[in-house]
């Protein structure tokens, strides 16, 4: 299966809009994704990884989030010729005003509506996932 990472597509409801948290890496091509990261050795539950990485990368705690349990999505792509799997769940930020605190891994973050989030999340599988989640939330 290659490398495995996990994270949350964090959203908030604010000003009559659903907004998604996208974060820009401070390394490489400075690409944008939701908070996520590699499963640590010994971590058997990928949701534990998702909570840990989300806290490390955005400062948002488990108690800040309401995870929608049956929203697991799996993205698979190659990085440097090796397969990588990324597992996401949808998670609502309970207090939409909660502050995001960046780590050194990211240089910026934005709360974006669906159209903007798809522009920043510049990969088809990411865009498909965001569209799928947005549909779930609006229906
Ligand atoms: N270039 C670099 N220079 C210095 N340090 C680096 C580095 N890359 C990683 N690191 C180090 O690795 C650590 C990250 O570890 P973690 O925080 O544990 O893991 P990650 O978010 O999964 O890492 P990454 O950003 O590499 O993953 P992504 O799949 O989004 O991205 C991996 C690649 O896949 C591409 N990608 C992302 N989403 C994709 C998708 N949906 N489809 C196809 N390609 C995609 C991205 O554009 C990117 O090129 C950082 O602390 C940093 O120190």
TrEMBL record:
SUPFAM superfamilies: Nudix. The keyword Hydrolase applies. Residues 1-134 form the Nudix hydrolase domain. Transmembrane segments: none annotated. InterPro entries: NUDIX_hydrolase-like_dom_sf, NUDIX_hydrolase_dom, Nudix_hydrolase_domain, Tetra_PHTase. Keywords: Hydrolase, Nucleotide-binding. Signal peptide: none annotated. PROSITE patterns: NUDIX. The keyword Nucleotide-binding applies. Belongs to the Nudix hydrolase family. This is Bis(5'-nucleosyl)-tetraphosphatase [asymmetrical]. It comes from Nicrophorus vespilloides (Boreal carrion beetle).
